[in-house]
From TrEMBL:
This is DUF2218 domain-containing protein. It comes from Microvirga subterranea. It holds the Pfam family DUF2218.
Amino acid sequence: MAALRSEASVGTLVPDRYLAQLCQHLSREVTATYSGREGRAEFGFGQCKLQTGRRALMLVVEAEDENSLARVQHIVSSYLKRSMWREKPTINWIRKSD
Protein backbone atom coordinates (compact mmCIF):
# COMPACT_ATOMS: atom_id res chain seq x y z
CA MET A 1 0.00 0.00 0.00
CA ALA A 2 1.20 3.50 -0.80
CA ALA A 3 2.51 5.54 2.11
CA LEU A 4 1.82 9.01 0.67
CA ARG A 5 -1.34 10.47 -0.86
CA SER A 6 -2.48 13.76 -2.35
CA GLU A 7 -5.73 14.89 -3.93
CA ALA A 8 -6.91 17.57 -6.32
CA SER A 9 -10.33 18.62 -7.57
CA VAL A 10 -10.38 20.36 -10.95
CA GLY A 11 -13.54 22.28 -11.79
CA THR A 12 -15.07 21.80 -15.24
CA LEU A 13 -18.50 21.52 -16.82
CA VAL A 14 -17.44 18.39 -18.74
CA PRO A 15 -15.50 16.15 -16.32
CA ASP A 16 -16.46 12.97 -18.23
CA ARG A 17 -14.74 14.27 -21.37
CA TYR A 18 -11.52 15.08 -19.53
CA LEU A 19 -11.51 11.77 -17.66
CA ALA A 20 -11.63 9.93 -20.99
CA GLN A 21 -9.04 12.18 -22.65
CA LEU A 22 -6.61 12.00 -19.75
CA CYS A 23 -6.81 8.21 -19.51
CA GLN A 24 -6.44 7.83 -23.28
CA HIS A 25 -3.37 10.07 -23.34
CA LEU A 26 -1.79 8.38 -20.32
CA SER A 27 -2.43 4.92 -21.79
CA ARG A 28 0.18 5.66 -24.46
CA GLU A 29 2.84 5.68 -21.72
CA VAL A 30 1.47 3.63 -18.80
CA THR A 31 -1.37 1.27 -17.96
CA ALA A 32 -4.45 3.49 -17.81
CA THR A 33 -8.09 2.49 -17.86
CA TYR A 34 -11.45 4.16 -17.42
CA SER A 35 -15.05 3.11 -17.32
CA GLY A 36 -18.01 5.34 -16.76
CA ARG A 37 -17.12 7.86 -14.09
CA GLU A 38 -13.86 6.32 -12.86
CA GLY A 39 -10.35 5.83 -14.15
CA ARG A 40 -6.95 4.65 -13.01
CA ALA A 41 -3.36 5.12 -14.19
CA GLU A 42 -0.63 2.79 -12.93
CA PHE A 43 2.92 4.09 -13.00
CA GLY A 44 5.83 1.94 -11.89
CA PHE A 45 6.36 4.35 -8.99
CA GLY A 46 2.80 5.30 -8.04
CA GLN A 47 -0.79 5.53 -9.22
CA CYS A 48 -3.55 8.02 -9.93
CA LYS A 49 -7.25 7.33 -9.38
CA LEU A 50 -9.72 9.58 -11.17
CA GLN A 51 -13.42 10.13 -10.64
CA THR A 52 -15.91 12.53 -12.11
CA GLY A 53 -18.22 14.65 -10.03
CA ARG A 54 -21.04 16.89 -11.05
CA ARG A 55 -18.76 19.75 -12.07
CA ALA A 56 -15.28 18.50 -11.28
CA LEU A 57 -12.69 15.87 -12.00
CA MET A 58 -11.26 14.44 -8.79
CA LEU A 59 -7.71 13.08 -8.73
CA VAL A 60 -6.06 10.96 -6.04
CA VAL A 61 -2.33 10.24 -6.34
CA GLU A 62 -0.55 7.64 -4.22
CA ALA A 63 3.14 6.73 -4.03
CA GLU A 64 5.67 5.29 -1.61
CA ASP A 65 7.98 8.32 -1.32
CA GLU A 66 8.07 12.10 -1.84
CA ASN A 67 9.90 12.01 -5.17
CA SER A 68 7.50 9.46 -6.65
CA LEU A 69 4.47 11.37 -5.40
CA ALA A 70 5.76 14.60 -6.92
CA ARG A 71 6.57 12.79 -10.17
CA VAL A 72 3.06 11.34 -10.56
CA GLN A 73 1.50 14.70 -9.69
CA HIS A 74 3.66 16.43 -12.30
CA ILE A 75 2.86 13.93 -15.05
CA VAL A 76 -0.88 13.92 -14.37
CA SER A 77 -0.98 17.73 -14.08
CA SER A 78 0.93 18.17 -17.35
CA TYR A 79 -1.34 15.85 -19.31
CA LEU A 80 -4.47 17.39 -17.81
CA LYS A 81 -3.37 20.95 -18.53
CA ARG A 82 -2.75 19.99 -22.17
CA SER A 83 -6.18 18.36 -22.42
CA MET A 84 -7.92 21.29 -20.74
CA TRP A 85 -5.94 24.06 -22.46
CA ARG A 86 -9.08 26.05 -23.25
CA GLU A 87 -10.17 26.11 -19.60
CA LYS A 88 -6.69 26.82 -18.17
CA PRO A 89 -7.23 24.63 -15.11
CA THR A 90 -5.85 25.29 -11.67
CA ILE A 91 -4.57 22.08 -10.09
CA ASN A 92 -3.79 22.38 -6.38
CA TRP A 93 -2.60 19.16 -4.82
CA ILE A 94 -3.57 18.73 -1.17
CA ARG A 95 -1.67 16.25 0.96
CA LYS A 96 -3.88 13.71 2.71
CA SER A 97 -3.09 11.25 5.45
CA ASP A 98 -4.90 7.98 6.10
